[in-house]
Every structure is written in C-alpha cells, then in structure tokens.
C-alpha cells in the first residue's frame, strides 16, 4: 500500500497516533524475487550458466542498513521449488528466521513471504535459502546483509567480498545436477571446481598505496574451507561472524574461513605502485590470487597506525559458574566407524541409514527438525555446549538466533561467533546466554551434512 501526500495530511488531521502499525509496516516492504536466470558466470568464451538467484543474480542484491534499522523484504518465489530465506547471524525474531520446517512453512512457487525484522548488531551478515539449502544455495541463492555502525570508521573505502565455489560441468557450462550425491553427503560435502569472489573468478580492484580498506569476507560456499593469506597488504582481523574483536588481531600467516563464516579485515595497502596486493587462497599444493588489488598510485605518503577496535555490539555475557552443561556428540560419515543410529524412533543400521541418504548422527540419532529439541532452555539462562567431532571430517557448526563465545583451552571466553569450525577429532566448548525465545536450529553448515543427519534445534522459552 502506497500512501499519497494527501492521505498523510488527512491522517495527520485524524491523528497519526491512532494509525495502526500495519500501515507503517507496509511502507518499505521491498520485493526480492527468487528466480531462475542465465548469467555469465564462467569466462566469456563459455556460454551462460543457469542459476537460481535473488532478483536473478548471484550473489543477490546487497542489503545495507544502519544498526538498529528495520529490514523489510517480500521474498517472491518464482522458483520451481518451495524456498525460504534465512538471515544468517542476525539475532532475529524467531518467526523471521526463515527455517522452512521449523519457523515457517516453505514459500510455495508463486507465493511470497514478508520478512520484517530489526538488526540489533552492526557487522557483516548474509542471507541465503534455507529449504533444501544444499541445492538452493549451491544454485546461487545467497547475498550480503551489511549492517553499518552508526558512526563511520576510519577507512578509505570498503569491499564486500563473497567467496563461493560452484560445481560446474565444463562441457555444458551448467551447474552440475549432482545435489545430494552420496559421496558429498558422506564425505566433505559438495565441493566445487570453480571458485569465485562476488561471482567473478578473477576479481580485481584498483587501490592506492597506503590506503586503508575494510574487507568484509563472506564464505557462501556449501562446504569449502578457505585458507587465506595476505600479500602486499598488511591486515588485522577486526570482527568475526559480524562481532567485533576487543583487540584487532594482526594477520600473520594464514587464517581459515569455513562455510558461512565471515571475517572483517582492516588492511593497509603496502604493495608498490604498479604492482598488486592479494588475498591469496592456499590449497594443498598451490596458492593463487583470490582477489587482486592493483596499486595505481600513491594515496597518502605515510601509513596509519594500528586500527582501533570496532565499537562492540551489546551482548549478555554467559555465567560459566551457573551454566547448564549440554553435550553434542557428532558421529558418522565415511571412515567414521559408526554402526548405526536412532532414525525415525528406532535403531537403524548404517546400511538402512545410507538407503535414505543419512550418514551422520547427533547424540546417537539422525538429526532433523521433527524430533525433540536437543535442549529446552529457560530464557536468560547461561549454557555451555560441549561439541565433540568424533568423525573423520571438519564441520562448521552454526547456531541460529544467538551468538556464542568459543571457550579457549584455558577456560576463558573467546570471540563471539555464530559458526564454529571443528577439525576432525576436535572438541569445542561454546557458551551463550539463551536470551532469544524460540526454536533455534543448530546444524553443520556444510550443507550436505545438514541434509544427511547433522541437524538439531534448541527451544528457548
Ligand atoms: Cu559437517
């Protein structure tokens, strides 16, 4: 509903205070259409690739607002499949979390859903499909959600960098239609063969020497863990998963960015004029430029000092002394040695599990949204969750609705995150205050793993 100036005048005469909220609610509900589109994803000498994208592009349109703002988006589903949209890392009202099957029904083709929420925290977030996400995110349904600090920070400019990998059939230039392949489900997830930043395989930006950049990195891939380093750039990690670090952490060597994780860097361009700085991706036996920053001239003559920390987001600190202890044992997968697990209320052999595409278990049961909650939590209570990765693969565990602290080996509270990466065999304690009511998913963000048993939820009431 759009109101004319005259309508407003008439209403102010009647007294705006009496105006129902629903009228306000509709004033900025912008439409985003999830649809099929053909884009030039591969280099120009290949044909176009059919994707599923928000507004037909991948990444989808950037959503950029200021901390505390209200975001309203009508997601119109023009896909052939039901979908839903999750606002990853936003401490959101449960009804707006976008988890089909837990917080809402999937949006059927031809239908729409109005998402309407406030963003409490500044930082780098993202949005993505959350129905059959192992397929829908792989087809391109993701985009950046940037929440700016109220006051600008001391940088020259910033770049949002969405890292992704695609599994492409080079013969046809099309996304490989191998969603839910047994090997992906049971091993390291759906890894791609074509790596992009912002949908481009050779993203390059022009910068000036000694410029200070803020780089907002988002890993939108299904399963790839990026190992990244800087070259010709000196940098500090200033935030992880949107949440500022109390002390900027210098980047020395490399750092990991798992599926769904974000990192905000402040970098100074140190490469010489005429050369380039790089974000370098290290893989097993080679390294290559993920993003190039061509240095076209001198910015200032001198560099700035160490960056200030970003202003913190208000966040309740968990009390470990009184925290409720919960355990989460992750088992299964290839080379995991698991013999079976509870599935649909009865003990099932690994063979029976495999026949239904399930390979993993949480606390001895194939996880899903239909079973009971992992924990019934009282609003405001502190929780310590011990996650044990007793599998042969790394996993990126994501909690919806609330950020958590990773607990350091010395027992102190570490950085706030919404997604924590556990290497194989690793145990991690996390702690949080269950201060957001509702049903919150806790799952592996290697999306093929979530689809094959690595899913749980907690209820906060
Ligand atoms: Cu996993």
UniProtKB/TrEMBL annotation:
One protein family per Pfam: Cu-oxidase_3
All copies of domain Plastocyanin-like, residue ranges: 37-151, 160-271, 354-460
Keyword set includes Oxidoreductase: yes
Superkingdom field: Bacteria
Gene3D superfamilies associated with the record: Cupredoxins - blue copper proteins
Keywords: Metal-binding, Oxidoreductase
SUPFAM superfamilies the record matches: Cupredoxins
InterPro entries found in the cross-reference section: Cu-oxidase-like_N, Cu-oxidase_2nd, Cu-oxidase_C, Cu-oxidase_fam, Cu_oxidase_Cu_BS, Cupredoxin
Entry protein name: Multicopper oxidase family protein
Species for this entry: Roseobacter sinensis
């Amino acid at each position: 509903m759009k109101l004319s100036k005259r309508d407003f005048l008439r209403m102010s005469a009647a007294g705006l205070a009496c105006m129902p909220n629903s009228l306000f609610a509709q004033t900025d509900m912008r439409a985003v259409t999830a649809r099929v589109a053909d884009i030039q994803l591969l280099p120009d000498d290949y044909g176009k690739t059919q994707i599923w994208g928000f507004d037909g592009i991948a990444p989808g349109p950037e959503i950029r607002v200021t901390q505390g703002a209200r975001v309203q988006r009508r997601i119109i589903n023009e896909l052939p499949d039901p979908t839903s949209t999750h606002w990853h890392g936003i401490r959101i009202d449960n009804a707006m979390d976008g988890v089909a099957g837990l917080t809402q029904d999937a949006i059927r083709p031809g239908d729409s859903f109005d998402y309407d929420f406030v963003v409490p925290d500044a930082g780098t977030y993202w949005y993505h499909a959350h129905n059959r996400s192992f397929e829908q995110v792989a087809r391109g349904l993701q985009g950046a959600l940037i929440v700016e600090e109220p006051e600008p920070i001391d940088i020259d400019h910033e770049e949002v960098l969405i890292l992704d990998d695609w599994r492409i059939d080079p013969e046809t230039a099309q996304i490989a239609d191998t969603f839910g392949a047994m090997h992906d489900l049971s091993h390291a997830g759906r890894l791609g063969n074509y790596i992009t930043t912002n949908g481009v395989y050779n993203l390059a930006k022009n910068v000036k020497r000694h410029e200070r950049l803020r780089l907002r990195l988002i890993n939108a891939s299904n399963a790839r863990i990026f190992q990244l380093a800087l070259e010709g750039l000196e940098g500090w990690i200033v935030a992880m998963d949107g949440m500022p670090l109390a002390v900027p952490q210098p980047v020395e060597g490399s750092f990991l960015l798992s599926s769904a994780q974000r990192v905000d860097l402040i970098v100074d361009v140190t490469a010489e004029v005429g050369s380039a700085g790089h974000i370098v991706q290290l893989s097993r036996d080679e390294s290559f430029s993920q993003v190039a920053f061509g240095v076209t001239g001198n910015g200032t003559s001198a560099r700035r000092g160490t960056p200030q920390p970003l202003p913190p987001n208000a966040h309740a600190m968990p009390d470990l002394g009184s925290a409720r202890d919960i355990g989460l044992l992750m088992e299964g997968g290839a080379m995991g040695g698991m013999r079976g697990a509870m599935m649909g209320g009865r003990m099932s052999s690994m063979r029976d599990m495999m026949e239904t595409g399930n390979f993993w278990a949480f606390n001895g049961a194939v996880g899903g949204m239909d079973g009971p909650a992992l924990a019934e939590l009282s609003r405001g209570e502190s929780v310590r969750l011990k996650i044990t990765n007793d599998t042969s693969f790394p996993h990126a565990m994501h909690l919806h609705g609330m950020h958590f602290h990773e607990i350091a080996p010395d027992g102190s509270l570490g950085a706030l995150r919404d997604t924590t990466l556990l290497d194989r065999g690793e145990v991690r304690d996390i702690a949080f205050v269950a201060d957001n009511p509702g049903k919150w998913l806790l799952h592996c963000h290697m999306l093929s793993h979530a689809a094959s048993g690595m899913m749980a939820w907690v209820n906060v009431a």
